[in-house]
Amino acid sequence: MRHLMNPLDFSVGELDDLMNLASDIEQNPDKYAHACDRKKLATLFYEPSTRTRLSFEAAMLNLGGSVLGFSEASSSSASKGESVSDTIRVIGCYADIVAMRHPKEGAPLVASIHSKVPVINAGDGGHQHPTQTLADLYTIRKLHGRLSNLTIGLCGDLKFGRTVHSLIEALSRYEGIKFVLISPKELRVPEYIREEVLEKKGIPYQEVEKMEDAMPNLDILYMTRIQRERFFNEDEYLRMKGFYILDKEKMELAKPDTYVLHPLPRVNEISVDVDDDPRARYFEQAQNAVYMRMALILTLLEINVEA
Ligand code: NCD
Fold this sequence. Notes:
This protein is of the alpha/beta class. The chain contains 11 helices and 9 strands. It has helices at residues 12-27, 51-62, 84-91, 107-113, 130-144, 162-171, 191-199, 211-214, 234-240, 248-251, 282-300; strands at residues 40-45, 66-70, 97-102, 119-124, 151-155, 178-182, 205-208, 220-223, 259-261. The strands form 2 sheets. A 5-stranded parallel β-sheet has the order 7-6-5-8-9. Strands 2-1-3-4 form a 4-stranded parallel β-sheet, with helices on both faces. It is globular, with a radius of gyration of 19 Å. Bound molecules: N-carbamoyl-L-aspartate. N-carbamoyl-L-aspartate is lined by residues 51-52, 123, 129, 132, 162-163, 224-225, 263-264.
């Protein structure tokens, strides 16, 4: 039995298989409409979410399965003091697969150790968010036709943004990837990513504070919101909020094929007038996430749909 905790749990070859499956699902949705008949997905969300939880649920419903779960810790037995390891043992009696989001780094990993069904990390604190990465990779591959030889700009809260950490780890396995890390000094990528991933693997990267300096060279601009809930104090958050605002003017500095992605939710870091720019692809990225989550559910449940 397999779980998904980190994007590196899948090899590059396995990721290709997943993306090919997602692409087949996208093109032939009817073929998969009953693939998960009578299967159940439990979504255990101890932290707020709209997209991730609903897109997991939509993915399972598209496959003919059913969903159950909770969307806040206060409505679960966690509020009575139940441990994650006890909860998961019980949920394994009700569901065939679990997607868990938790404010504590490593909680889904603890759950997976005690689980008799596959567990998917749907975001653990400021750590990792591997299924967002699946959506990001699939979107980049669709837009540029490849995942190698690309210059990727990541902008915003690179310290607490878990989607950024997962995406850097995943992309660092492809040839010819360069990163431009755009953040205020206080919100730089954590040291473990710089040392254990970028430097160890000799991946070229630049850290810059000004977005304008980076714009002309990017193939992808991945915007992120300042992660308010992970700040220790509100004043600090307010100082950082508004540091980066991508607007029409800044988009003029970018190449015709610099696509803009964002895991969403957006706060104010992308001005709404950018939404009409053909290079703005964040809503498409949210749609792609559903196909990738469908592919992931099928893969972890070891369900093969014949051609
Ligand atoms: C992201 C998350 O939860 O980390 N959202 C998402 O899953 N699409 C990004 C964020 O909350 O900023």
